[in-house]
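From the methods appendix. Each design record in this collection lists the tokenized structure first, followed by the designed amino acid sequence. Records were kept in a plain field format so they could be parsed without special tools. The example shown here is representative of the layout used throughout.

RECORD:
FOLD TOKENS (287 positions):
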């Protein structure tokens, strides 16, 4: 698997988004473990999660515990796997997602994630979503505090504007903002300014819902004809073409396609080896 860089870490060019294995529609645990193991078999060394990836009240950290269990039961070496988690969202169990970016919540959430993941320090901790009730500087300032305390090795932000990226760069200190994770897919391109801004500053950009999201990813080829046509020309899936197109946009882009089946991540991981021509990339960018 080709690699890319997040801060000080080298990771696979394609990561695994673990959310579908813990929220609405999630599979049983055995299938989830098989899916994570299939990702590792394919050379994936970046797994994206969050404390809020769960379904019912009282099971915060479900996805983090699942990943910890899958890593512990994997027969191969997992020492080079970067687990990227997030704090700043709360799920009360009624289907809603509430934001809490207060320093108190983020400190408690990071401690709980350390426990759920069973680690001494979190590899990459991302502030999940800006909280309109809390100044952005305060939320990101808490990430700086966690970095300084050694509880997290790297800091990232998610659902951020260009302005918030710059605030985070300033508060964390030059070089300490490792990643930006925003929505980006063939159907949702409005994060391209953030993608370009992150890339210009050497910050990893992790597109979330890169295939259009759970429930829509399967129809990508019918919704986006150009992606299907390029896929047919290469004899591969339109999902794989989408991820290869993103990789071609900038060396800092590291897509994190979700999966709840081994077949999905096995197919997606091969995007790292799919070379598109400049004409194909330009055509998909314009489509
Ligand atoms: N920061 C944020 O606010 C935020 C928000 C949303 C998501 N995320 C992160 O981003 C990750 C990815 O987003 P997402 O899971 O919402 O959506 P997505 O990656 O666009 O789509 C996920 C779905 O794609 C299907 N899929 C994956 N690879 C495929 C392939 N090669 N061929 C056909 N189908 C394929 C999977 O199907 P199966 O389930 O059948 O395997 C899965 O359900 C999440 O898992 C999460 O880690 C972050």
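DESIGN:
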């Amino acid at each position: 698997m080709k690699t890319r860089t997040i801060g000080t870490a080298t990771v696979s060019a394609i990561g695994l988004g673990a959310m579908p294995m813990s929220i609405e529609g999630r599979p049983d645990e055995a299938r989830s473990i098989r899916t994570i193991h299939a990702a590792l078999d394919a050379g994936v060394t970046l797994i994206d999660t969050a404390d809020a990836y769960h379904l019912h009240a009282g099971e915060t950290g479900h996805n983090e515990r699942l990943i910890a269990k899958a890593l512990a039961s994997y027969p191969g070496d997992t020492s080079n796997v970067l687990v990227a988690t997030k704090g700043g969202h709360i799920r009360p169990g009624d289907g809603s997602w509430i934001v809490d970016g207060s320093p108190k919540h983020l400190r408690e959430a990071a401690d709980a994630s350390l426990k759920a993941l069973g680690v001494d320090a979190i590899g990459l901790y991302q502030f999940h979503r800006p909280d309109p009730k809390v100044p952005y500087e305060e939320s990101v300032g808490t990430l700086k505090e966690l970095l300084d305390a050694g509880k997290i090795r790297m800091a990232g932000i998610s659902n951020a504007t260009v302005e918030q990226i710059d605030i985070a760069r300033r508060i964390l200190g030059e070089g300490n903002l490792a990643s930006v994770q925003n929505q980006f897919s063939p159907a949702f391109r409005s994060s391209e300014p953030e993608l370009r801004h992150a890339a210009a500053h050497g910050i990893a950009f992790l597109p979330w819902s890169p295939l259009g999201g759970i429930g829509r990813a399967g129809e990508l080829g019918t919704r986006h004809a150009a992606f299907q046509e390029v896929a047919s020309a290469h004899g591969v899936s339109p999902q794989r073409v989408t991820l290869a197109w993103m990789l071609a946009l900038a060396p800092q882009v590291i897509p994190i396609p979700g999966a709840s089946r081994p077949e999905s991540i096995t197919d997606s991981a091969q995007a790292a080896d799919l070379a598109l021509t400049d004409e194909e990339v330009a055509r998909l960018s314009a489509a």
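APPENDIX NOTE: The pocket of NAP is lined by residues 17-20, 48, 129, 158-159, 181, 208-214, 217-218, 237, 239-240, 256-261, 264, 267-268 (CB under 6 Å).
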